[in-house]
């Protein structure tokens, strides 16, 4: 029996509220995170991701309160990311009621955090989030990825919300994250994020095929077909979206029914 594909709403949090913008700009309020998460729970979401985009130590108490409220009311797995820099941070988030933590910049800067977190809390708790950007100038040692137009490129890992290139090859970083014990990869292509033209299926497929752990496609959903492409062409194990759910363009139930009717195994 085929493993079911997951649909995951992502809630970006700022000062305890859900916000959404395009390319990290023009943020607008989208509601209370626990109320939205409860709605997605009713619609049949497989998981929910909370991403604390302000994530300073001063604001950590706000996200802890949100996690605790959500854990009390929800019956689906909750992943929390943003500003998690240490084992102590991971422990605090999990104790508040999260099932998994998502680490991104801190994992690149300190890969031992993946290893230590996996040993201490279990691989199933550690999600490595990757923001990647297409680089058309091939270099020795980079993993070549062929685009739909035939161009050959490689993808570079970027950190600090996409503002700092690292020179790290995305496919190799995904492999290292898996070797160090990550349980999942959450992959966002900077070019497609927020523009609603579909997932970057080229890099999603390349990373999905290179690792043995689940890959969550993120960044670019605008239509029901984009979810189908993420699974069929991108070989993703899960698809994540935000604004199309928050602003009522589609429901999780509608997405799953669309996928089911096209032969994709989903939990209805």
Automatic annotation (TrEMBL):
Task: Show the PANTHER family listed in the entry.
Answer: IMIDAZOLE GLYCEROL PHOSPHATE SYNTHASE HISHF, IMIDAZOLE GLYCEROL PHOSPHATE SYNTHASE SUBUNIT HISF/H IGP SYNTHASE SUBUNIT HISF/H
UniProt keywords (A-Z) are: Amino-acid biosynthesis, Cytoplasm, Histidine biosynthesis, Lyase
**Under which name does UniProt file this protein?**
Imidazole glycerol phosphate synthase subunit HisF
Enzyme's top EC category: lyase
The terms describing its cellular component in GO are: cytoplasm
Q: Which reaction does it catalyse?
A: 5-[(5-phospho-1-deoxy-D-ribulos-1-ylimino)methylamino]-1-(5-phospho-beta-D-ribosyl)imidazole-4-carboxamide + L-glutamine = D-erythro-1-(imidazol-4-yl)glycerol 3-phosphate + 5-amino-1-(5-phospho-beta-D-ribosyl)imidazole-4-carboxamide + L-glutamate + H(+)
Q: Chief localization class? A: cytoplasm
In its UniProt entry, the species of origin is given as Methanogenium organophilum
Cite the active-site annotation. Answer: 12, 131
Keyword Lyase on entry: yes
Q: Which GO terms describe its molecular function?
A: imidazoleglycerol-phosphate synthase activity; lyase activity
Name the job this protein performs.
Answer: IGPS catalyzes the conversion of PRFAR and glutamine to IGP, AICAR and glutamate. The HisF subunit catalyzes the cyclization activity that produces IGP and AICAR from PRFAR using the ammonia provided by the HisH subunit.
Family the UniProt entry places it in: Belongs to the HisA/HisF family.
Query: Which locations, inside or outside the cell, does it occupy?
Result: Cytoplasm
Identify the InterPro entries for this entry.
Aldolase_TIM, His_biosynth, HisF, IGPS_HisA/HisF, RibuloseP-bd_barrel
Subunit structure, briefly?
Answer: Heterodimer of HisH and HisF.
EC number(s) stated in the UniProt entry for this protein: 4.3.2.10
Task: From the UniProt record, give the pathway where this protein acts.
Answer: Amino-acid biosynthesis; L-histidine biosynthesis; L-histidine from 5-phospho-alpha-D-ribose 1-diphosphate: step 5/9
Biological process per Gene Ontology, one example term = L-histidine biosynthetic process
């Amino acid at each position: 029996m085929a493993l079911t594909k997951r649909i995951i709403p992502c809630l970006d949090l700022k000062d305890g509220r859900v916000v959404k913008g395009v390319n990290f700009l023009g943020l607008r309020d989208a509601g209370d995170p626990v109320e939205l998460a409860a709605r997605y729970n009713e619609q049949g979401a497989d998981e929910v991701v909370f991403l604390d985009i302000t994530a300073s130590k001063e604001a950590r108490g706000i996200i802890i309160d949100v996690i605790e409220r959500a854990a009390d009311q929800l019956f689906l797995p909750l992943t929390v990311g943003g500003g998690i820099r240490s084992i102590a941070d991971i422990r605090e988030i999990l104790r508040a009621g999260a099932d998994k933590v998502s680490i991104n910049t801190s994992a690149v800067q300190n890969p031992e955090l993946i290893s230590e977190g996996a040993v201490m809390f279990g691989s199933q708790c550690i999600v490595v989030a990757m923001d990647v950007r297409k680089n058309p100038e091939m270099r020795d040692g980079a993993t070549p990825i062929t685009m739909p137009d035939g161009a050959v490129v490689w993808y570079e890992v970027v950190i600090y919300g996409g503002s700092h290139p690292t020179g790290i090859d995305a496919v190799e970083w995904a492999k290292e994250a898996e070797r160090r014990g990550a349980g999942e990869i959450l992959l966002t292509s900077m070019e497609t994020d927020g523009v609603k033209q579909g997932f970057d299926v080229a890099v999603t497929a390349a990373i999905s095929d290179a690792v043995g752990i689940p890959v969550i496609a993120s960044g670019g959903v605008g239509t029901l077909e984009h979810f189908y492409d993420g699974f069929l062409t991108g070989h993703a194990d899960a698809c994540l979206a935000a604004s199309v759910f928050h602003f009522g363009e589609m429901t999780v139930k509608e997405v799953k029914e669309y996928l089911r009717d096209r032969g994709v195994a989903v939990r209805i």
